[in-house]
Amino acid sequence: MRVDLFDFDLPPESIALRPASPRDSARLLLVSGDAPFEDRTVRDLPGLLRAGDVLVFNDTKVIPAQLEGMRGEARIGATLHKRLGLRQWQAFLRNAKRVRDGDRIDFGAGVTALAGPRDEDGGVTLSFEGEEPVEVLLERAGRMPLPPYIASKRPTDDRDRSDYQTMFAREDGAVAAPTAALHFTPDLMAALKTAGVGTETLTLHVGAGTFLPVKADDTDDHRMHAEWGRIDQATADRLNAARRAGGRLIAVGTTSLRLLESACGEDGVIRPFADETRIFITPGYRFRAVDGLMTNFHLPKSTLFMLVSALMGTEKMQSAYRHAIKEGYRFYSYGDSSLLLPER
User: Fold this and answer.
1) Is the C-alpha dihedral spanning 214, 217, 218, 222 positive or negative?
2) 164 exposed, middle or buried (CB, 10 Å; 0-12, 13-18, 19+)?
3) List of the chain residues with pLDDT < 50
4) Strand-strand pairing, 54-58 and 38-41
5) What is the DSSP letter of 21?
6) pLDDT digits over 21-73, tens only?
């Protein structure tokens, strides 16, 4: 499938540089079957869902995974994106041509790492020196890894430490936030409970590969990045029971959706899962686990815009994005949201 089918023009001013405040005041575009688009807010969510529906959140926690250091006289940037061991992380390097296998990179604040060979995804293994846990080292020397389309417009600051973290964040390991869940607040969760909407959590550690552009001209030639996720037996059982009772599973974010679909068999049953997934969802994919998706607005020609097009139809999503741009919706990680329901 041609990648240019998923292109669209986005004005630079549509990119949100800060989240809405309060979080649940963000706008929400309802895209439902053949019905007209509806301009709502995230606070309307309890009335847009049905009792018995279940929202599925990702409880991964973003770590300060961006580092700036020196290899000799060369300035090196590193973005960690996948844990390989107790002290080893896969990382994408800036100025990587100046780094060779075995080189020591000094990230300041007493944090150093040895570079290993390049991997098939273009990353480098960094082995951190010393005895302290890597998470402690990152708290000392790292920065929150804002998406490049925000970081290129303003510096990361202390606000981002809380702004770029969801209220569900518990499991350390992500280098990008599951941003659809940034819109949720305790008040909204209470309203959802009153409306009879259930909630569940799973874990998918979002990697830096989520920001990588699709360089191929055809989707068949794109290699999807790997991310590690987990769904335990009890959660899988509750999700299956909710669906058998007539409830819909609504993934909050593409990360939750990708993990649910990875864990679901052809029979529509969700099973326990603890592994990497490279699932790449494009139009023609048959969804087995989810009945809807809440998600922010994505990049042109990105794998995530391909995913939402697979769920709702490419023409439908191109039309929805044109509407969102015309109506001034805010795009990307700190932007507004959409609720995608193939059938309502």
Assistant:
1) negative
2) buried
3) none
4) unpaired
5) S
6) 999 999 999 999 989 999 999 999 999 999 999 999 999 999 999 999 999 99
Q: What is the DSSP letter of 143?
A: B
Beta strands 249-252 and 198-205 are unpaired
- Cβ atoms of 221 and 27 within 8 Å: the answer is no
Cα radius of gyration rounded to whole Å, the chain? 20
**CA–CA separation, 37 and 213 (whole Å):** 29
Strands 60-62 and 171-174: parallel
In whole angstroms, what is the distance from residue 89 CA to residue 132 CA? Answer: 15
314 C-beta neighbours (distance < 10 Å), count? 17
Chain position carrying tokens 């507004």: 336
Helix (H) / strand (E) containing 159 = helix 158-163
Side-chain-side CA neighbours of 123 within 13 Å: the count stands at 22
**Tokens representing residue 168 in the block:** 């569900």
Amino acid (one-letter) located at 93: L
